[in-house]
Request: fold
Amino acid sequence: DTGVSQDPRHKITKRGQNVTFRCDPISEHNRLYWYRQTLGQGPEFLTYFQNEAQLEKSRLLSDRFSAERPKGSFSTLEIQRTEQGDSAMYLCASSPSSYGYTFGSGTRLTVV
Amino acid sequence: QKEVEQNSGPLSVPEGAIASLNCTYSDRGSQSFFWYRQYSGKSPELIMSIYSNGDKEDGRFTAQLNKASQYVSLLIRDSQPSDSATYLCAATPGRGSTLGRLYFGRGTQLTVWP
Reply:
């Protein structure tokens, strides 16, 4: 499979727990993005990597959120001390130099 | 005001008709525009991109851009039930912003009935 892979597909966690999501982009894509989408809304930008460098972070990305992309390959998004408001679909996308994003299947997070 | 606005619909058209989806954007510096299709429970899929004023056709899809009016549209000809989905409009930030993010509208839900 040469698409964008996200793991896990679903995550249910208790409020206050930490969660980590993984994204494996298309191998030749040097740009990687994280978005968050809630029901009835469009995706909201969280952060962007070009290779291993995190070039932009949204104000939505509070101190509880951190993302990494070691070695410019896969990326992880960690949410510490989860809150119910963090429940959403977390989407990873990758692209080459253009804006033609390819999204992964997403990780659906439910905080109970 | 959100950067990209769409009528959330729902828009309902009969099979074979033309579906017209509309989008406006607030950042006059935006240069690139995209339409994504999202089936229920799935992730967005890129279907069209447009960068210049005018029309761009790809099969049954036509994207239209009018930068003076800050308006983008998507026409779907010969609509099929399989076109039933939410259509997301997206735009790049204007010049001077980091060229990474896209601004998405909330999407328009399209239903094509047989």
Notes: The interface with chain A takes residues 4, 8, 32, 34, 42-46, 49, 88, 90, 92, 98, 100-107 of chain B (CB under 8 Å).
